[in-house]
Amino acid sequence: MSVFNKLLLLALCFKTFIVITNAALCGCAKDIALRITNIYENGDTDFHYDYCENLDDGRGFTAGIAGFCTGTGDAWDVIQEYHSLTGGNDDFSSMDATLEKYANDENDSSSGIEDYCTIWEKLGKSDDNFKKAQDTIRDKLYFAPSQKYSSDLGLKLSITQGQLYDTGIEHGTGTDADGLGALIDETNKSFTSDQTGDSGSTLTINGHQVDEIVWLTKFLEVRTADLKNPKEKDNQGGDYWAQTTYRIESYQYIMDQKEYKWGSSVKLLDNDGKATTVSCSSISTSNAGICGCAKEIALQITNIYENGDTEFHYDYCEYLGDGRGITAGIAGFCTGTGDAWEMIKIYHQLSGGTDDFSPMDSILEKYANSNSDSQAGLEDYCKVFADLGKNDAKFRQAQDKIRDETYLAPSQKLADQVGLKLSISQGQMYDTGLMHGPGDDPDGLASIIKETSESFTSNQTGDSGSTLTINGNQVDEIVWLKKFLEVRSDHLTNPRDPENQGGNYWAQTLYRIESYQNAIDQKEYKWTSSVKLLDNDGGPITVTCSKSLRKRALRRAYRRDTLSNRPVAIAWLLLTYVSDAVSSAGLFAVDDTESTLDESSSSEDVTDMQTSKLNNLETIRGVNIGGVFLIEPFIKPSLFDQFLSMSEPDRPVDEWTFTSVLGKEEARRQLEEHWDTFITKEHLETLAEDGINWIRIPIGYWAFNLTKDEPFVDGQIPYVERILEWSRDIGLKVELDLHGAPGSQNGYDNSGRRGTPEWLLSRVNVDRTLDALTKMTQLAVDWDDVVYGIQILNEPSRWKWAVSDILEFYNEAYDLVHNMAPDTYFMIHDTFLSPNDWPSLVSSNWTNALMDTHIYQMFDDYMVTLNETTHIEMVKTMAENITKFDRSQFGVVVGEFSAATHDCTKYINGFGRGSRWDGSIEGIDRPHCPFESCSCTGDYGGNYTEFSDHYKRFLKRYVDAQLQIYDQEIAGWFYWNFRTESAPEWDYLLGVEQGWIPKFPRTALAKPKEINTDGIMEATEAMDISAAAASVVALAPIGMALALAFI
Question: Which residues are catalytic?
Fold first, then answer.
């Protein structure tokens, strides 16, 4: 099978990724923990989204499912999150200024927010977005941090993990004197020797082996003392904390009942000391059983059995001759069993109903209904499947959904019914369900479970620490699992269902059994971060979940308990699948109440950030001088509006057709006026004052190599040299960028010619490109005190051209540029490949090389539906993705990005084209935006004077989130664009003027280059590499759109 080199996937997209909130408590155990704390907070197990009152405890109004307070900041967090879901205009909007002030000042006043509880109660009862906002902030500020502590301690028992969550809710999750972190530290200090117990779980505390329940007993003692005598003055008022020791008594009762591991219910004491039972009646089957790292490992193990490695092969497709038709995708979806057809139907829903599979629908449905093995009429099936698997995020999303709904969730429901607690048993249920099916047919998972359980007629002891009740007998879980593997082996060797007997295929997969048996021999019962087992060839292998995990650090986590101390930073893992279920669980949250830059960034000037060590050159803080020497309709629409009266097929859409329609004489007149006026020295001076130290100048090949039969006009170079002169005077460094190649390297209007690219179809085109590059390099040599970088070609399309062919051009271009200008940075675009692929592709002899990557978040039907919070989270996740980049040869520069998250901007999708946002673009049947009403007006209308304060705050947070990474962790950045005619989010000068783009300190004037020609990366060991457009390609379901950046 052809192995797809899967790029790292975005946390916002795939169920195969996990969240730290599931790395400890998850499933029923999490639901029970939340409900227990609900009892303590509200008196019952319900989630009181509508609760609101002033407790006079110095925290202002307390409200909602986690007691969010107006005087501590978390209530403001909830409301900010709610604004992001509603678009910023809701019942709380009129109180924003007061609420923000009270949050920032830690003020418990109710003045000016007298109607606060009335509004909170109304929305809490009826508004799903408001409930979702509360879930998000509760998990972000309290649940996730508490479970991070749990993971760090190595806690295994639900009771201990639940206690940390409850403590975090009441005491806060910080390290202040009364915070959860401080209580944990105090507890740990008390252990100076080994402490045994009967919990079956042992922790390592200060080098000593401590039973987990012994540790919990001490923790409850420490917490009780703190409740009675808080250390922080702000927590001592009103004797409120001392009245809540019933929380401790309740957990002590659970311990007395030995309810250490929570399944479907737990007995405890309520606030009045009465015994009650908390049940997990509402938890979904998708959350039952295996979760967190264990789930990730289980999926990867089955990937090994299915595909030979741990990757998710969304593009795999072949006919196995096993009676199931064509087998394809991450879960071996088969045309003859129905799961392939179910997956394709989901894809139809996501793609709008008409896609590459549509012509096969009737045949696929017929084969699914008749369980046909036939391939007739499906000759192109694998070609389409492989292409969509590689390139279409929605298709990958459909595969994830059907895999989880058809195999993972049912298998874990069965695991829960048996009472399985060990990851190894739960993982085996998934693997069996995937191969055999989860049903009760003769070879199905349910049948194998039944046959296994029927074999136990007496108690069976073992060493797993987990005991099942089977037919009234007490059976060790590993003993049960060994019998299950024996039964499954028999089904593989001798399938009961005749349809599974063809080709002896099943009998050849006994390596799946041997692999799990080896894991049992290694006593790999509970899966945390890695598991040792055997691969398909019988060789030892270690499967980890670290390859899919990313850490996300928030600038601060709010503490409910202390109003005076500065909040502390909390880091946790945030990777998940974007679906209605997950969104409603509130997993995509960010601290959007303040900038993600250093604290000084909230003022007009940003403090000087980390200086890149790239050849003693300061961090690149640049802007693109786009739309000047290669015109683009959205940058200056007035150039193209003159053609609106023409019939659509005849209208110019790019510079090629612009000059063709006008003719050379008129085109030259208009373009020379444009070159002369659109960029001025004053613009550059203002940019320099704002802290910009580089500019990137895109130029089309026709400025250097124009033939008589082409409609383009030349004459740009004197105007380019004028900019170089200004830059010399001002102290700016310059990158010259060959932005368009003969025949077009990508088919976008930003190459000068929209349509089918023809660049590499002719060697003549390549030679002309190299000639243009030679002349551009000579220009750089002539201005070598100003020109520091040469980009050999912007965005060549790897979907049109083989990477090997692009690489051949890159190598020729490197030799050319390096021979002429060895001290100038040689910049290549990543072609939307993962940057990690490039070090293995290019020559190790390359020096002074920089990788250019472009990051946008709006060129996709799905992307524009994301809310503000998710857009900001995506920035952070993409940053983690690129830090694994091999920096031994390259530095990384984000050569293009902007503040835009919608495609309402006039002509952003091309002249004459509409937007996905309001549904006006050709090819979609409905609007795509995060709101019920999608209109390109107001905040999204292109007139910044109509922007709401909320939207301006979002723009600032979004830009800050990007600059926090691009400025501090890589070689630097170039914003697109320096100015526009009517596109505010793309206009750097306007953004600084209006405050959503920060100013930076003015840097020193450019000096002669000091470049280490032995290899630029010798000085970059301290750099972390940020997000790349190539990584963005992998950040499904954003998918191809981020790669197909139109700018």
Answer: 795, 896
